[in-house]
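In response to reviewer comment 3 from the previous cycle, which asked for concrete evidence that the modeling workflow produces usable outputs, we include below a single protein chain processed end to end. The sequence was submitted unchanged, and the resulting structure tokens are shown without manual editing.
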Amino acid sequence: MKIQHAILHIFDFETNMHLYSQTPLDTQNEDVQTFITKQIEVLHQDLQHKPAEFQDGSPCLGLIETYRQNQDFIAFATNLAENVTKELSHCEQVGDQDLLVVQYLDGEQTQVALILLARKSAYTHFVGQSEAGIATEIIRHQAILPNSSQKPTTYAVIDLATLTLVYRDRKRVYDGEKRFVLPELILGCSREAQTPKESLKIVNQVAAQIAQDHDVQPSIALAKVKEYLVEAAQNETPIEPTAIAEEVFARAPQLQQTFKAQLQEKAVPQAIPMAAKVAERTGKTHVIKTDTGIEIRVPSEFVSNADYIEFINQADGTISIQLRNISKLVDK
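The workflow returned the following structure tokens.
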């Protein structure tokens, strides 16, 4: 990742006095670079953003097209900020906010990120001088930015070449009505698509239900979904639900077709956007919870391997789990 431009605008909705910066941030400054880089990494690893496309008449699309022609980043970012303040001024309880606008290279793709940062107050120390000498005090600072690794709840990332985007937002009370202000009014984009988290949840639900309907242990099917995520992450390949169907029910082509048909019916996309680190972390461990309160954490690749764990259906309808080849127990 290479940061090309960045600017920070400050909003005060209590007084309706907003400060639009006329100069960009110094991205060569180590602290600035670290903060921005971590923010962008958090966005890329988020599973709760929605893919979207600009709609006709989008106010943001017009600004982007102008920017692509004149390349005036400060004017572009300021116009964006003005649109944000215009729409958020109609909302209740907005709080103190800053808008970080960043242009960066992700591989060969030029991206622009708009990140709304909620400011907070926090206590810090202050060192002053008194007649008796050095004096330390505790003061309340009213304008602290969120931690660099904290996940923003309102942001958008736009590909300047393809004009595709992803966004995340929460409902706000806008002129008395609850609305998603970012996609509806600021970006002017579609918002019906599933988040990666929603898509993965549907994949898991369909896999478990098909397994249960055909006398396959659902835990094994779900673990195979996770095995696929790890493998895709390691091979740096897209997360494709149709490939998951083939992985989970490798020896049952009919179940694969059933799986694929249900995914299509539930509008799961052909590829689920997910960073490799997130896919590997998500798929690494499988957790089994029983109705008796027992919880077992197992490496995903072990769940379908009878050398390590076996699910036994008892005559009375209960299930037993047998763990095998254990040479040592460690209490924690």
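The first helix runs from residue 30 to 44. We consider this sufficient to address the reviewer's concern, and the full set will be provided in the supplementary archive.
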